[in-house]
UniProtKB/TrEMBL annotation:
Main function: Required for the activity of the bacterial periplasmic transport system of putrescine.
Cellular localisation: Periplasm
Single GO BP term: polyamine transport
Name of the molecule in the record: Putrescine-binding periplasmic protein
Family, as annotated: Belongs to the bacterial solute-binding protein PotD/PotF family.
GO molecular function: polyamine binding
Origin species: Roseivivax sediminis
């Protein structure tokens, strides 16, 4: 899971001169950048980039609350960011060091204010939705031509799941998203903080648990692309990357992503600098590089997630900016919900419930 790019190219090392090379340590989600950008950053700035990846907000949160992570830039989702800001985990951005910050898109910054008032601690990297990825042919084989591929019935109705189990179904290992999805399905408020309501998600999962092969938040990209599984509840861009990997492999697998008609979660992944970051100046250089319109477009064109950079939009490929599964139209947008962070007591309920859902007891 961990991957690191450590090497400074020889040319960049020369440019950096005799002085000790500066470095920046970035901790981002897996499958979330075009790696050419990492090399470009090193070449342009002479800063040595150490880039590690994760696939869980909970894991990142543990590191942020413990402190001394050694990272200079991290990328929590809005709700987690909010809680970590309150815990003092981040430093305010020095906007003087971020001349490209004017590229940000007010449609997104207006929404991220909910997590980071005044957007003082973070910039938006990418945003997206949590929906369903399918291997179209396998799902139709299992459920027939009119399989409900654009409905949460596909994965929350036990009758469907029983038939899909054989071709393989993965769910995200992300309680802050999978519990709201189940609540939304049964007509409850997906953002409920009431432990009695939250517990009802347990009943939804109890019915389908025997048919879920795995809870994992990054393996499903390849598993979908190579036909190992037929359904993944996952993140928009990841499923679209699976679609591309299958097409490139010419393996006969057709992957599609849908935002189910009953609604889906919308989230914002924010870049922030830990309070104890060893290299805050280099961290700002990294953020400013990311805020560049063409760099940000290159990232979105590669990972199929929308970004918060208005100036990047003229450089986005048509299959990105023109795809409502990535840049939702008003109708889709009206059907998306967001959540707010649980307080510690409710969080304990959620954590306990999720553990029991996964273990199937
Ligand atoms: C990238 C997943 C990022 C979305 N693989 C999770 N917020």
């Amino acid at each position: 899971m961990i991957h690191r790019l450590t090497s400074l190219t020889a040319a960049a090392a020369l440019l950096a001169g005799a002085a000790a090379a500066q470095e920046v340590r970035v901790y981002n989600w897996s499958d979330y950048i075009d790696e050419d950008l990492l090399t470009q950053f090193e070449e342009e700035t002479g800063i040595d980039l150490i880039y590690d990846v994760f696939d869980s907000n909970e894991l990142l949160e543990t590191k942020m609350l413990a402190g001394n992570s050694g990272y200079d830039v991290v990328v929590p989702t809005g709700t987690f960011l909010q809680r970590q800001i309150q815990a003092g985990a981040f430093q305010k951005l020095d906007k003087e060091q971020l001349p490209n910050i004017d590229n940000l898109w007010s449609v997104v910054t207006d929404r991220t204010e909910a997590y980071d008032p005044g957007n003082e601690y973070s910039i938006n990297y990418m945003w997206g939705t949590t929906g369903i990825g399918v291997n179209v042919d396998r799902v139709q084989e299992a459920l027939g031509e009119d399989a409900p591929m654009n409905s949460w019935d596909l994965v929350f109705d036990p009758a469907n799941m029983e038939k899909l189990a054989e071709c393989g179904v993965h769910f995200l290992d992300a309680p802050a998203e999978m519990i709201p999805a189940a609540l939304n399905y049964i007509g409850e408020d997906p953002n409920s903080h009431d432990p009695e309501v939250i517990e009802q998600a347990g009943d939804v999962y109890a019915e389908i648990r025997p048919h879920i092969q795995k809870f994992h938040s990054s393996e499903y990209i390849n598993a979908l692309a190579n036909g190992e599984i037929c359904v993944a509840v996952g993140w928009s861009g990841d499923i679209l990357q699976a679609r591309d990997r299958a097409a490139e492999a010419e393996n006969g697998v057709t992957v599609e992503y849908s935002i189910p008609k009953e609604g889906a979660q919308m989230w914002f992944d924010q870049m922030a600098i830990p309070a104890d970051a060893p290299n805050p100046e280099a961290a700002h250089e990294f953020l400013n590089f990311i805020l560049d319109a063409e760099n940000m477009a290159q990232a979105s064109n590669y990972v199929y997630y929308a970004n918060g950079n208005e100036a990047s939009q003229e450089y986005l490929n048509e299959d990105v900016i023109g795809d409502p599964a990535i840049y939702p139209d008003q109708e889709t947008l009206d059907n998306l919900y967001t959540t707010t962070p649980y307080d510690p007591r409710v969080q304990r309920t959620v954590t306990r419930l999720w553990t029991s859902i996964k273990s199937g007891v």
